[in-house]
Amino acid sequence: MSTPEEFIQSMYSVMSSRGGPGYWKTSAKPVTWSFDAGLPDPTTFPLDDLVRLSDKVLRRDPAGALQYGAGPDGSTMYGFGGLRELLAEQAQRSVGPPVDIRGVILTSGGVQAITLALQAFLNPTDVIGMEAPTWNMVVARVRQLDLEAVAIPLDEDGMLLDVLEERLQHLRAQGKRLKLLYTQATFNSPTGVSLSLPRRQRLLEMAKEWEFLILEDNVYGDLRFEGSALPSMFSMDDSGFVMKIGSFSKTIAPGLRMGWLMGHPEAIAAIAAVRGDLGVSQWTARVIAEYISEGLLEPHIAEVNQLYRKKRDLAASVLEERCSPWVSFHVPEGGFNHWVELDEHVDSAAVRELGLAQGVDCRPGEKFFGEGESGKSHLRIAYSQVPMEEIERGLTVLGNAIKESIRPD
Amino acid sequence: MSTPEEFIQSMYSVMSSRGGPGYWKTSAKPVTWSFDAGLPDPTTFPLDDLVRLSDKVLRRDPAGALQYGAGPDGSTMYGFGGLRELLAEQAQRSVGPPVDIRGVILTSGGVQAITLALQAFLNPTDVIGMEAPTWNMVVARVRQLDLEAVAIPLDEDGMLLDVLEERLQHLRAQGKRLKLLYTQATFNSPTGVSLSLPRRQRLLEMAKEWEFLILEDNVYGDLRFEGSALPSMFSMDDSGFVMKIGSFSKTIAPGLRMGWLMGHPEAIAAIAAVRGDLGVSQWTARVIAEYISEGLLEPHIAEVNQLYRKKRDLAASVLEERCSPWVSFHVPEGGFNHWVELDEHVDSAAVRELGLAQGVDCRPGEKFFGEGESGKSHLRIAYSQVPMEEIERGLTVLGNAIKESIRPD
Which residues of A touch B279 (CB under 8 A)? Predict the structure, then answer.
């Protein structure tokens, strides 16, 4: 008989692509300045309103707020109808044609919407398209699900669609097809780049011509500090090929665990069929519905954007001041981070190591790329969570780490 | 170019095993008496405590309650450490040896724990063992994931382990193996049957000998109205082969969306690695931790069990009175439902149709069995949610439907 460890190891060998032992590693060093994860600033959480509205929705309808939801009206798997209606109305205001509430499903943050879409529409070895770079969680998930990734590089106007076109032709020549394209069309993370309007139009045409679904991750879409808002791909689409992901994690609070996915009702039915839970909390969905109904969301977003703009500007000026001429970056019009390219003379591994030793953490660029791609010369610096007064100190420490990591010519 | 509908249909044809269009069907007739789903009675939800504790945890630590959780301490993917510690302590009290909190992960109800375990440990065509009958959601998920199910019939002491042994030998002869056995060892739904103590011991020996994981779904375990409590398989295990699922959905409220999975830390690491979300709500986890810390959970469970015992007894006496001699059932010692066998002269499809036409719904027996198995002569009648005064009326209507559905000899 094998030991449990040996047995579980043998399980892993069967399904090693899904992750192995030692998944959760405690970091050895305490982190003083965490520019690693794209977390919202906790001082923005609308505490008083959440307490008040939570009490209100519980008192008003405890049986509704605390039950699973009802099967017959779809509220168990799709989520509280009141919130889905508000989301449909909001989308409709910008789109025009009515959005069917059967085309709206609530998810545990935006991330669950991504996972479910990949599970619903893709089988192992199927082809998924994505930006290069893109969110590291998606890179990891694509690997775990054993999908074939087609990574499309970006310039300042987003994905290079000529490259996508070439890849589509290449796939066809191999007897394969692209089934789904994942895009953070507005404020790609890590780069902060958005897909330009003409490219959005062309991409929609390509989706129709080549018949692939577009999964538009718009969780950063509302976090715009300047520049003109771009219409979402979903709002421009008349074909049903686009699904759009939203989330309240960045704008209200992640502890609500509430995101959503919007699309053609039949596509959303496929999502509902693969979700391995019994939907999201009826309670927190009602809290958010009330928050929106009272007209609190839009002014709140305007307010948090003022804070994040200040943080972005401060982080940019400290990086300029402390790290020149060894870093270069474009200041994004929104979102939570700077995407910083290190000069070729800078040893990026040494920067990470020296920084961590002094308590400053940020995310290595290679995490945002699939295998065989680049990213080693980049760092993603998320300024969103670090208090204003600590941004300067933390990035000064990072700047010193960069200067200490310069290789001689 | 195909229409979106045609395109999505083509997607479905690729992945038809995962569910098709028209997933959410609104029922045509309104249901007055729903004995269908195993929902808790909403009058049991501890509203005042939840309101009070929700306010308390939000005010005390808004940044903790409303954020994602922290990566470095594992609280994002594993969930709030305070609640996991309480669950580990509780298990330790009954088990003896310490339970590592890395062996406890919070999930979106018990159902997500099941889904994640199947995803983590089983690949398509792998063999899973389960009771016959078992929870219809699991039957559906097994089919969706394209697993091979080995269904083990039950008697009044639970699974027939001689049959399991034969199936294990048969699998070995085919060059296959059982990887994981799903069991509701205490209060199997639909039957209410529990695995006897001697069989628990033998099953543990078999797991070690044949090297399979046991996934013990204990969500009904605390809902015992009479008889001696049986130790959980997890508490009897010294090998690490058993994982145990718990949930607060039946005991506190489903709207919290909180369950958990407990097992060997390496097995739980495999679960954390496949979860496609960013963990459960830090907020609601803190509410529950506070509820337990204040000593409210145990007396609350005792109280709800008094109500469910009354409902069980009332439902049993109405069924006896109104449906004799056309039904037979064993009164379960706990849980949410009666498993009723219809006499061979009763047309079960007609019962369902007549019942629904008059507003009474219950769950057809065949949903609890895989393909090629039986169940057509059974109904699961969940008494948990229906108010006391309506149980009599609803089951009277059902009784009349049964009497009207008797086939002549």
Answer: 257
